[in-house]
Specification:
The chain is α/β, with parallel strands linked by helices.
Amino acid sequence: MDFRKSIAELLSTRTGLAADVLAASVEVPPDPALGDYAFPCFPLAKTLRKAPPAIAAELAAGFSDGAAPFLARVQAVGGYLNFFLDRAVFAGAVVRDVLAAGERLGATDEGAGRTAIVEYSSPNIAKPFHVGHAFTTILGNSLARLYAHLGHPVVRMNHLGDYGTQFGKLIVAFEKWGDEAALEKDAIRELLRIYVKFHDEAKDDPSLEDAARARFVRLEERRPEELALWQRFRDLSLAEFARVYDRMGIAFDDYSGESFYSDKIPAVVEMLQAKGLLEESEGAQIVRLDDEKLPPCIVLKSDGATIYASRDIAAVLWRKERYGFWKNIYVVGNPQSLHFQQVFAVLRKAGYACADDCVHVGFGLVKFADRKLSTRAGDVIFLDELLDESVAKTREIIDRNAELRGTDMSEAERADVAEKVGIGAVQYAFLRNGRDRDLVFSWEEMLDFDGETGPYAMYTYARARSVLRKAEAEGAAPADASDADLARLGGDEEAAVARLLYGFGDAVRRAADANEPYLLTRQVAGIARAFNKFYNNQSILSAPDPETRRARIALTGAVCVALKTGLGLLGIAAVERM
């Protein structure tokens, strides 16, 4: 039930104004003591030719006829009309709606026909998939899920870093110092070793950099020797990436990387030249962006090699032609903000309206209190090792709790739960706060089963599911919401849970609109906290009478629906037992 809409319709019958116009003014007061909803009467003063306090008082008197059973009372305060919902009616309606929606809770069809491309992860081929890649991977995965939940056709795109001068460096390094046996055993670590060695050696031998540039030019020319090595590095890297993605439950629809667009750049250059936008500067080809108050965008380097900007311009044009996107979203770190401003500005200057449909979703850095990350220096933390450590620490907690509670979980079940909760803890940590904030890793904080964490939300779901299993075993669970007298849900804790359940759909929409999944993590955490307070203060299976028990079981089922759906939209798999 849409209470805001219902209140607007009641106001419409009493004022003669359109309900949709009135609904836009119905707001949620900052203080619950002022009601569940409030309507400011000031905009009506001119139309009704009365002072706002008089309008509010007159309208409040008109609600005393009992025409709205979901309202406990309506109160005029100054120029505001405050609406207090009947707790039991409200909670009952919310539980019915949540149980009826099931996994479609918060879902809409508003995005039908509006394709959203979400580009995320995009690791560099032949380099380790380290913890720094986790932010874009986890954030982008959640955004893709949110947009799909709102009905958008979603293209999950992994724009692989599989081109550029670094491949010239790797080719030179592999020919000089590569170890075939090591490459077959652990390709990424071997490629990292020689990449680091190249930079160490280049400090004393600058000619290595010249050799690397020359080999990349040959790669762009698709010379067989360079192309074969590049393809081998790419295939080995993709196999490693796939293993990590599968473990995290992440998949992509399109792996078109930088190399895919290399043959499309000549057309971009010709287009920019035809429009009179390209000019030479110190041997390079650039587009000036003075009118956008941005530095020039380099399209071709002085040696004729392509650059990130030229490939991204080609990518936008190809994606528009291929997918006809509504939004083209880049989940890339904040340091690349200027790059995307330049790319979008060049497209606008060239007359492409789709530039305004391109969005850079930036995010902060991943930090450890005692170290900095640098691929060139070889100081990296592999993501799979971080996941392994999180799973191991989670397993210790699960084993300790199982011994304390006497849980009868099998070895296989404990391993499965530890894997899901350990990975979920990492995923939730990246989404818990606004994406612009840097993430500083703290195991104690991340694996806190009593804080605003992934394990806490997952544990709450498992606790609620345990209640439902016991209820089913006792034959006390209602077949559906219609089998329970939901009017029994009028207590403070029950109303608090219902209020957060009611806000779930709005949280999904706001998270997608702002490209900020933390708005959903906050809702999930709120539901978990409210349910645990209800669970600790009120008896569910031992309720005072059968009808109250069935109503509270139905509320518990609604909490399970919301938590599982919310965790799923964050990319986290719920567990049935912990």
